[in-house]
Structure formats: C-alpha cells, structure tokens
Design brief:
It comes from Cellulosimicrobium arenosum. This protein has two domains: about 5-15 and about 105-240, Rossmann fold (3-Layer(aba) Sandwich); about 20-105. By secondary structure, it is an alpha/beta fold. It is globular. The chain contains ten helices and six strands; from the N terminus they run E-H-H-H-H-H-E-H-E-H-H-E-H-E-H-E. About 45% of the residues lie in helices and about 10% in strands. The model has no long low-confidence stretch (mean pLDDT about 95).
C-alpha cells in the first residue's frame, strides 16, 4: 500500500487551462472599473496577489481592498453590476461563462496522464475548487465521469465551508473519499491552495507553476513544484507522508 492513497486536484490551472481564461475575465471586469475611477490599473500581478484560488466574492473584496475601495457585500442574488461585491462577482461570472462558450475548454494532457496513472495505481481522486462553475468546466473538458467526489464553490456555500487558504474544502474532500488528510496529496497552482494544503496537514502538497512562480509556491507550502504534471508518475504516491505518525 503506498504511503499516500488519495489525490485531491484543484481544477483551474491544474486540470484545465481555465485559470488563464479566468485571468482574462477578471481583467475584462476590473480594467474598465479602475480606469473610470482613476485607480491604479489592473494587472496580471493583481490576479495572483489578490484573486487566484479564492472564492469569487472573496477575490472581488480582496482586490477592491488593494485599491482602497469599499463596497457593501450585497447578496448572491444581486444583479450583475458594480454596486456591491456580489454584483461585481456576478458580473465576472457572466463574462467567464460567455468565454467558456466562445472558446471551449480542454484539459492539460499532462494532467490527464497523471490522473490516469494515479487512478490506475488505486488512488482515490477528487476535485476541490473554489469555482461554482466546476460542474460546467468538468463536463466541457470531458472529465466529469472521472471524479465521484467534487467539493466546489457550490458545496462550500451549501455546507458553510470556508474557502482557500482555509483547508476546510480539502478536508471535506478527504473525508468524502475516505482517506485521512495525512495520506492525501493536494495538487494546486495557487498560493492560497498550497497554503490550504499545508495548513490542513496533508501528506504531500504538489505545486504546479502556471505563472505564480516556483519559489512563491514553495514559500507558501508546496513540498514539490513542477511546471506540468507530465513530469510526475504514480510513484509520487510512494513518497513518505510529510506528517509523521499519520493515521493509516
């Protein structure tokens, strides 16, 4: 039996290249918002610093705070617009869903190969994502039937789970696949995600560097960093768990 028995995958930027699409959607939202108000222009660095990996509304609020802008939180039912944090988040959702339709989604080949390898080796697998669009993305990428356990933004809202960098969603996924956290691998491309893996005392935190930087991923909790999951095989499950005395 390998030391590590489950692999918990983030979605955007790990299984699918939708992180890049999300980056452009956020730019479409915030570039004009900042221009009209005379704020410091939005840049790609803002995505990694304030938004990447977080629940949508938290990302809006964190970015606004970086520009000294205060808006009422509002409600998830708010119409897409600019009057509240939720309205802005809902506007971003409209933008990104239009982009899904226009551009389509394909998974990273290296990630699919790694998924195939660990599944063939007997590992349990799950998707853990802050996105409420996770079911749409998995279906469009042809991966929906590969994951019996999905803990996404919808599940987090329904069950009252805190978003990344809190480890709650990953811990819930470990519970659902029936493997102790100390025997699970967390696979993440976002700083908030590797922080969640480290905070949750998971067996191994794999960072995938899609632009945030290998050093930054390590500094925030990644044990191993790769540029693409094609660099890894199922023998990663044989690595000793980072947590000693872990429950078998």
């Amino acid at each position: 039996m390998p030391a590590l028995r489950a692999v918990l995958f983030d979605l955007d930027g790990v299984l699918t290249p939708t992180a890049e699409l999300h980056m452009r959607a956020w730019e479409r939202l915030f570039a004009p918002f900042c221009a009209v108000r005379g704020l410091t222009p939005y840049s790609g660095a803002d995505y990694f610093a304030h938004i990447d990996g977080k629940p949508r509304y938290d990302g809006v609020a964190t970015f606004l705070a970086s520009r000294g802008v205060e808006l009422a939180w509002g409600d998830a039912a708010d119409e897409p617009g600019e009057g509240t944090v939720c309205a802005l988040g809902n506007r971003k959702d409209v933008i990104v869903n239009a982009m899904f339709t226009e551009e389509g989604i394909a998974p990273y080949p290296g990630s699919v190969r790694f998924l195939d390898d660990v599944t063939a080796a007997g590992a349990e697998v799950a998707v853990v994502s802050s996105s409420r669009n996770t079911p749409t993305v998995l279906a469009a990428a042809g991966l929906a039937d590969r994951f019996a356990v999905v803990v996404d933004g919808n599940v987090a809202a329904r069950e009252g789970l805190a978003g990344k960098p809190d480890p709650a969603t990953y811990l819930r996924a470990a519970e659902l696949v029936g493997v102790p956290a100390a025997r699970c691998v967390v696979v993440e491309d976002a700083l908030s995600g590797v922080q969640a893996g480290s905070a949750g005392a998971f067996g191994l935190v794999l960072g995938v560097d899609r632009g945030v930087g290998a050093d930054a991923l390590r500094e925030h909790g990644a044990d191993v960093v790769v540029a693409d999951l094609a660099e890894l095989r199922a023998d990663v499950l044989d690595r000793p768990a980072r947590v000693t005395g872990a429950d078998a």
